[in-house]
Amino acid sequence: MLSWNCVRILSSSRAALHVKRPIMNRLCVCKKSVTCLSTSLLKKETWHSSMNPRGLGKGTDLTQYINQAKSLMNYSTSQAKLNCWNCKQPLEDKPSFFCVSCKVVQPPEEGTCYFKIMDCDYTFTVDTHKLQRRYLQLQRSLHPDNFSQKSVKEQEYSESQSALVNKAYKTLLKPLSRGLYMLRLEGMHIEEGTESAADSEFLLELLEINEALDEAWTPEEANKIARDTKEKLAELTELIDAALLKGELQAAKALLVQMKYYANIEEKVKEKLSKFM
């Protein structure tokens, strides 16, 4: 007969397997209770497994998974314990900009995901119209001008919250900064001087575009380059979105490097066109 300890271990393992999929799915949508920052606790294959349940378990150690799940639960618990600095009542919303009980502005929660702040799904294809509405809504209530007659602490918190909302909005508004931020949440970075990450054929193509832009003598020539660049950026946006949905982070990183170059060309085109005005 199995000992009582063995029975407990088997029961715990079965329970962990049953909760595995819900925990994975929570990582992909930032509206859930665990903030996006917790996704950086998991490896690439974890994100991929949430998209493909059949891949779950391949190369995944049960003990490692349980430890990761405990880390997420602890992180969630610490967030749930936040109280208002003024009246000490528990804060219901996460992130909390104001206390529901005393209506006092709260300090920013360290490490809160930008997607969570802006009430957006954790996806590369963000609804920018919804993002802008959320930004205006938050700034109307958090702008420091609204707290000029309040205490010094409230003024400081409103300034911090307003600055954080600005940063989150600007980061998520454009595809390049949004994609780079999503990779940072996964522990991946694209450093300055990324020439080594691009192949020679791609760099040659960029060189030709830059030369054509330098030699553009009319607005029509510059606008032609602008249209081509816009089309290329739209194509890269679709490819990056597909790569992220599949959990192919290395592919997404390589595509974001290309997007970074084309975004630079787009800015150069704008500068060129301004000279014709």
Q: Tags for this entry?
A:
about 280 residues; mainly alpha; Helix Hairpins; Monooxygenase; 3 domains; about 60% helix; about 0% strand; chaperone; ATPase activator activity; J_dom_sf; cytoplasm; HscB_C_sf
Describe what you observe in this structure.
Pfam families: HSCB_C. This protein has 277 residues and is an all-alpha fold. It has three domains: 4-79, no CATH class; 82-173, Helix Hairpins (Orthogonal Bundle); 195-275, Monooxygenase, CATH 1.20.1280.20. Helices cover 62% and strands 0% of the residues. It contains ten helices and no strands. The protein has helices at residues 4-27, 44-51, 62-80, 114-117, 128-142, 152-173, 175-185, 200-214, 219-245, 249-275. The chain is elongated. Mean pLDDT is 77; it is low at 1-79.
What sequence of helices (H) and strands (E) makes up the elements?
A: HHHHHHHHHH
Mean pLDDT: 77
Whole-number tally of structural domains: 3
| Inertia-based shape | elongated
Content of β-strand: under 5%
GO molecular function: ATPase activator activity; metal ion binding; protein-folding chaperone binding
Keywords: Chaperone, Cytoplasm, Metal-binding, Mitochondrion
Main location: cytoplasm
Subunit structure: Homodimer. Interacts with ISCU (cytoplasmic form); this interaction stabilizes the (Fe-S) clusters on ISCU. Interacts with the CIA complex member CIAO1 (via LYR motif).
